[in-house]
Amino acid sequence: MNVSYALIADIVRSRDLPDRSRAQQVIYEALDHAAEGLTLTQRPYATVGDELQAVSATLADALTLTLRTHLLLPEGIGLRFGVGAGVISEVDGMVGDGSDGAARRPIQDGSAWWAAREAIDRAHALQDEGRSFIRTWLRIHPDEANGSEEERSEREGFVNSVLILRDQAVFRCQPRQRRMMAGLLMGRTQLEIARQEKVSQQAVSDFARGVGSSLLEVQKILDGMTERGKKDEVS
After folding, report:
1. SS3 of 116, please?
2. Which residues, 6+ apart, have CB-to-CB distance to 6 below 8 Å?
3. Would you give the end-to-end CA distance of the chain in angstroms?
4. CATH number at residue 11
5. Nearest CA-CA partner of 127 in 24, 12, 9
6. 65-103: per-residue pLDDT in tens?
7. Mind telling me which InterPro entries this protein's record contains (predicted)?
8. Would you tell me the crossing angle of helices 213-234 and 149-172 to the nearest 10 degrees?
């Protein structure tokens, strides 16, 4: 069984945005930038209303996409993500006619999408309960999980615990800190970031070794998962 990771995203408090059209354009650009270099079987695309979707071959790249996006979005614009692990199947038919510049896509169904919907609903519910910093949630569909129900539940719990801490760390960052972290995670040098932000390289270094160190360590773990996955495919 090939497990896929479906991602559903929607805009946080979209009705409160003063210029929704401009905000949507900023989000599309951030998602496109965030997707660079990741093994996505479907890059982020808009569906209906304020909703967007993507598909990743690995959990590591799915979570990397969400982290990069949270960091790249400017103050006042946010997304919540539901990530679903399961199977994706194609239904007869295509979406889109190419007139808007977007590629035509097959109509999809399957347990990964059902799980992603449950995950984003859970993230939304937690935000409504006052946990506004929670922006990402994982759901593993029971029918597609390897191992027992207890093992599936434990894996979900471990990942979501890390996501809660990760999203809270991002939520606490100032806009400049988010931009610096996005640059660091996407391979830019400290000098390049310092020049863009008009700060000293030492300031960027201090941030990377201080406030930003936990997010950098999280990404190192995700990068390691991706590398192991690639080696497994080759072997």
Report:
1. helix
2. 53, 54, 55, 83, 84, 86, 88, 110, 112, 113, 115, 116
3. 18
4. 3.30.70.270
5. 12
6. 999 999 999 998 999 999 999 998 876 545 554 444 455
7. SatD
8. 140
Q: Which residues, 6+ apart, have CB-to-CB distance to 132 below 8 Å?
A: 171
Instruction: Concatenate the DSSP letters of all residues of 14-68 into one string.
Output: GGG-S-HHHHHHHHHHHHHHHTTT--EEEEEEE-STTEEEEEESSHHHHHHHHHH
Whole domain around residue 116: which residue ranges? 4-89+107-173+211-233
Backbone φ and ψ of 7, nearest 5°: -120, 130
Per DSSP, what are the bridge partners of residue 108? 90
Q: Domain for residue 101, yes or no? A: no
pLDDT tens for 36-73 read 999 899 999 888 778 899 999 999 999 999 999 999 99
**Number of residues that make up the chain:** 235
